[in-house]
């Protein structure tokens, strides 16, 4: 395997210390009793704020620079003394308040101190802090995976939960991201693994020991320019010094996993205090518009006509056409949120259940993980010439049509693009099983219903009714 992990344990005492020291509500109440500090102040509360800011990317930090390629602190120089509130401290506080969606006062006020006391993710703020045009409530991106079919594995579990509960919470978070963008996750027991998931204590061997208030941390994607590759890329480490739950109370594992897996996919910390990708723990939460916009900016949306065609999707799924009519936007949202995971047919060139049924090796590898099978087809299956629909086979299409063979050679992707964008509408036969011109000519009732040259309509009829009625799709 490409990654080596060292699991370390410490005394149970650490667990008690962490739990007592980081409960956000109690800490915030205590902070309210401390007077507001501004430029010129000095003392322990100023130093504590400096240490917090330095740990999370606002001042020079050699450890962060080592662990995060391209890291640059928000403020280039430290205060003259850690306990002195000078101009550098004021500048860093303003950047912190901006990045966390707080009023930008430049003062160490109650709201700022209270937030600093809350449990949070260990990844630095402002890393990949992208320029914004839509206000502060905007996602932050760092990097992305070059592939979208990702593997994951569990290294261990947590004593707080049963194996089924802990695995279920993390897998549920993976599936939520999978439903939001064209990425897919497959659990593996060995071989190359993209994302390892584990529970750790304190200094656990990755060069990034947990601080007392750190719930978890994760590593950004591998080999995404300009960032260097890392053996830990994508990995998620949960701090087992905290008590993990699956019932929505502190600390909710699925919600924390959603946040950390956002980092694994390339999202940074968002200044939107309601977003999953906000740096500080927000309790039980689901993906918000800011999170969805962020992940789709990295991996796109389901606009690939090879795999999704809204009109075709509605025509092949009667329950959806009854619910949505001809609302293309509603059909697209259903495909993103539900249909893809249900294995619904969504395009003339690819129907995932057909794809798995035709290829036993893929059926064995993916089972009913339909998003993973879809990702395989777009990344590998097309170029391998694998048939993803009864209506289209790229090798057959090129062998049948000499003009296309002369134009594309054995370029199966180009052949597929031609059939999707032109060939089907021209009535070109794309597979041994279906000839659109033959089907309409052999079935006058279908031609009358759809039109004598509506080859797309003929294909839809054959898929939803003709095959089950015993009608031949080709001579």
Give the second-level CATH assignment, the architecture of the largest domain: 3-Layer(aba) Sandwich
CA distance, first residue to last residue = 51 Å
CATH H-level superfamily title of the largest domain? Collagenase (Catalytic Domain)
Order of SSEs: HHHHHHEEHEEEEHHHHHHHHHHHHHH
Shape: elongated
* Count of spatially separate domains: 3
Q: How many DSSP E strands?
A: 6
Pfam families: Peptidase_M10, PG_binding_1
Signal peptide: 1-30
GO molecular function: metalloendopeptidase activity; zinc ion binding
Domain Peptidase metallopeptidase: 141-301
Considering the chains and any ligands shown, give keywords for the structure:
metalloendopeptidase activity; 6% strand; 6-stranded mixed sheet; disordered N terminus; 44% helix; 3 domains; single chain; Collagenase (Catalytic Domain); zinc ion binding; Muramoyl-pentapeptide Carboxypeptidase, domain 1; metalloprotease; 475 residues; protease; Pept_M10A; mainly alpha
């Amino acid at each position: 395997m490409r990654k080596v992990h060292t699991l370390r344990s410490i005394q149970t005492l650490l667990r008690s210390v962490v739990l007592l020291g980081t409960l956000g509500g109690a800490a915030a109440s205590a902070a309210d009793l401390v007077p507001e500090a501004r430029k010129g102040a000095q003392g322990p509360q100023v130093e504590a704020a400096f240490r917090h800011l330095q740990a999370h990317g606002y001042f020079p930090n050699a450890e962060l620079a080592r662990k995060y390629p391209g890291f640059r602190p928000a403020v280039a120089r430290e205060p003259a003394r850690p306990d002195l509130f000078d101009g550098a401290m004021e500048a860093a506080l303003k950047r912190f308040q901006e990045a966390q969606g707080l009023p930008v006062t430049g003062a160490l006020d109650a709201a700022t101190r209270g937030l600093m006391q809350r449990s949070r993710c260990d990844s630095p703020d402002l890393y990949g802090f992208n320029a914004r045009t839509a206000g502060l409530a905007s996602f932050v991106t760092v990097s992305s995976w070059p592939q979208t079919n990702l593997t994951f594995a569990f290294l261990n579990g947590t004593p707080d939960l049963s194996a089924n509960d802990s695995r279920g919470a993390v897998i549920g978070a993976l599936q939520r991201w999978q439903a939001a963008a064209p990425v897919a996750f497959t659990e593996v027991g060995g071989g190359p693994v993209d994302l390892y998931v584990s529970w750790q204590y304190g200094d656990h061997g990755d060069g990034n020991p947990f601080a007392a208030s750190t719930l978890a941390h994760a590593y950004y994607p591998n080999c995404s320019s300009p960032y260097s590759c890392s053996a830990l890329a994508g990995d998620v480490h949960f701090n087992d010094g905290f008590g993990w739950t699956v019932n929505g109370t502190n600390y909710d594992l699925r919600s924390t996993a959603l946040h950390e897996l956002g980092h694994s996919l390339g999202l940074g910390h968002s200044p939107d205090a309601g977003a999953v990708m906000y740096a500080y723990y927000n309790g039980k939460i689901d993906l918000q518009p800011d999170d969805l916009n962020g992940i789709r900016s990295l991996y796109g949306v389901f606009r690939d006509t090879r795999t999704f065609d809204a009109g075709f999707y509605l025509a092949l799924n009667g329950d959806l056409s009854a619910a949505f009519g001809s609302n293309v936007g509603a059909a697209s949202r259903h495909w993103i949120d539900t249909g893809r995971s249900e294995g619904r047919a969504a395009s003339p060139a690819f129907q995932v259940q057909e794809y798995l049924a035709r290829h036993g090796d893929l059926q064995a590898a993916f089972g009913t993980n339909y998003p993973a099978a879809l990702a395989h087809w777009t990344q590998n299956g097309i170029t391998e010439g694998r048939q993803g629909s009864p209506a289209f086979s790229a090798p057959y299409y090129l062998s049948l049509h000499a003009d296309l063979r002369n134009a594309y050679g054995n370029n199966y992707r180009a052949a597929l693009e031609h059939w999707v964008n032109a060939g089907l509408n021209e009535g070109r036969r794309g597979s041994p099983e279906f000839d659109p011109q033959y089907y309409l000519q052999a079935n006058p009732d279908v031609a009358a219903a759809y039109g004598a040259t509506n080859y797309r309509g003929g294909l839809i009829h054959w898929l939803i009714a003709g095959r089950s009625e015993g009608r031949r799709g080709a001579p």
